[in-house]
Write a structure and sequence with these properties.
single chain, 346 residues, mainly alpha, two-stranded parallel sheet
Length: 346
């Protein structure tokens, strides 16, 4: 009898300690990691904006030290060394997050995502180091793109740990697959834009077309072309496509009845970020790539990508429930094979 009670107590303890239920502390910590990561993104973007990526020729140390002489007085050294310190901090925070999730969360997909984020942050650190050791712009471009993916991983974890994730979401019986699938298309288009932007930034093509919205010749299409002009023009053209596609997708979400208000809220935030991003893109040209607006342009782009992914990711939530269909939809959705065999659940 005592042995049976002891085994039952252990079993109950395991159920409580590792479960898919909402955990306030873990949810707060995962959100905190996302918050701190935004500072890392800003530091990385600012370092690139002022051309300080190679101010230290060594890695992982900076001029052979964790506290290089004069780094607080020199802007380039401050930007790059702060970026490295923040990167190490995010690595430790992500390691803690992954361990915490493996200990406390029983959901397989969440545990896989936690390990994937840990692998990503380690790979991100190595890419940053290779960029310095090999003085490679290719590694710098990959480093910048992976940072966006890493942010989306952390956002997914934070969303999956949030109280909202465990509350029932509603979605209309029709249009779910189309809106969700179109969201993946929008995310893909934004990520292509981020790749083009990374190539443009690291190729020094940010002012290849130095006027906006028209070219110096007064038209929409440049008269003289080279690689830098081409990649810059591609960035503008893809931005125009994103604006059109995003507005269409957002209008579908905002006008869909019975759609959960939380998804509509994030959609509104996404639209705000979209128009802010377009304005910042123009400011980059008008200020001749001033470091502050240029870096903020990078950060808002990352926020737009993460928000768009979050909207789509929420629609894969197992707690997403289909709203009650109308009478017409009920008639169209009847399974007549079940009716004929007497198995209809209606």
């Amino acid at each position: 009898m005592p042995l049976t009670f002891f085994k039952g107590t252990i079993r109950n303890h395991k159920t409580v300690s590792k479960s898919p239920a909402y955990k306030a502390l873990l949810a707060f910590y995962s959100l905190f990691v996302v918050f701190v990561t935004t500072f890392l993104l800003y530091a990385g973007g600012f370092t690139t904006s002022i051309g300080a990526g190679m101010v230290f020729p060594d890695w992982p140390l900076s001029n052979g030290s964790l506290n290089p002489e004069g780094w607080l007085e020199n802007q380039a050294m401050l930007a790059e060394h702060s970026h490295r310190l923040l990167g190490a901090t995010i690595g430790l925070l992500t390691l803690t997050l992954a361990i915490w999730i493996w200990v406390k969360d029983s959901r397989k997909w969440m545990r896989i995502l936690a390990i994937a984020s840990l692998v990503a942050v380690v790979l991100q650190g190595l890419l940053g180091g290779f960029r310095v050791l090999f003085n490679s712009l290719q590694f710098a471009m990959i480093h910048g793109c992976l940072a966006q993916v890493f942010l989306c991983m952390l956002v997914s974890i934070a969303a999956g740990q949030s109280r909202w994730w465990f509350r029932e979401l509603s979605f209309p019986p029709r249009g779910k697959a189309k809106i969700r699938g179109f969201g993946l298309v929008v995310c893909g288009l934004i990520f292509v834009q981020l790749i083009v932007a990374a190539i443009m930034r690291h190729s020094g093509a940010g002012l290849a077309i130095p006027t906006f919205p028209l070219t110096p010749e007064g038209g929409l299409i440049p008269e003289a072309w080279n690689f830098r002009v081409s990649i810059h023009f591609a960035h503008r053209a893809i931005a125009l496509a994103i604006v059109a596609v995003y507005i269409y997708w957002a209008s579908r979400i905002l006008t869909t009845k019975q759609l959960d208000g939380r998804i509509k809220l994030f959609c509104g935030i996404g639209l705000l970020l979209l128009f802010t991003q377009v304005t910042l893109g123009a400011m980059v040209i008008w200020t001749y790539r001033s470091p502050i607006p240029t870096t903020v342009h990078v950060i808002v782009g990352a926020f737009l990508f993460a928000t768009t992914w979050l909207i789509t990711f929420f629609q894969y939530n197992p707690a997403l429930k289909t709203a009650l269909p109308t009478s017409e939809e009920k008639i169209e959705s009847v399974d007549f094979s079940e009716v004929s065999t007497g198995q209809s659940h209606s």
